[in-house]
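Task 17 of the worksheet. Students: predict the tertiary structure of the chain below and write it out as structure tokens. Keep your answer in the requested format; marks are given for formatting as well as content.
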Amino acid sequence: MGLFDKLRGALGLGSGPPQAGDTASAPTTGVILPWKNKTAAEEVAGNCAVGNLRETLLGTLKDERGVHAETLMVVIGAIAGYAAAHSLWETMIRPGRLKLTRDIHVVEVKDGGTYYFGDPLNALLVGGQGSILPLFGFVGGAAVEAGVTVAELPDLKEIFGHVSSVVGSPAFGVIRAAEEHRPNLAAREALDLFWPTANAIFSSTENPGPATGHRLATEHWPVVASFVAAQFVGMAKATLDPRLSVRYIMEAAISTSKIDPKTVPYEWAKKA
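Model answer:
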């Protein structure tokens, strides 16, 4: 049984070859990214977004001691989760292909906040109908490549249950961790700090060669973030157990995927 089949089984999607629109997982090696063999402009834009996001986050989070791996995982998880939500809003919800309350459940909490739940959102993170290269496929594949068994991967149902139970509370987005592995940011803090940067990278038209003036398709934003997340799992394996990396990424991503887009900063605050 190959890695693809193992992860499909772990997700409860059965075995067999990938089916169109139901790609449950993708190892980090040999994966065909969705912008490859599209137009030359889209391929260059996708590859540039991967490199720019990876290097920008590593450079921004680096201090005299290096990059704090736990915080890095929360940051990329927060970006990946919201990139999935943004993609769904822009390509499916706003155009009316998906309907609020019918396809996407709206949850209003006592503090006045609004959160969004539903299978279409979850599919972009963990696989299912309509998903293309979901986040868990990338990071789970990277962990398996690093020596983790499929059985040791985080319990996604438990993570979804936890996130749902703390929506609207101070615990929302706070990654559960032992003191020695505590991230420096909660998922919402990471999103507010880094989404303007990620949005600028994803939206950039300052790409070389045939991609000059070309903007990466919105549906590819989550794949860029997911691929970078997988790279980080592999890069940090000597200092952070890949099982923890995957759990931090998924817990942050599931949290930020639920957030009301109206509350998310898309640009850097203008200085007075």
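Marker's comment: The beta strands are 62-63, 66-67, 105-108, 114-117. The chain has a mean pLDDT of 88.
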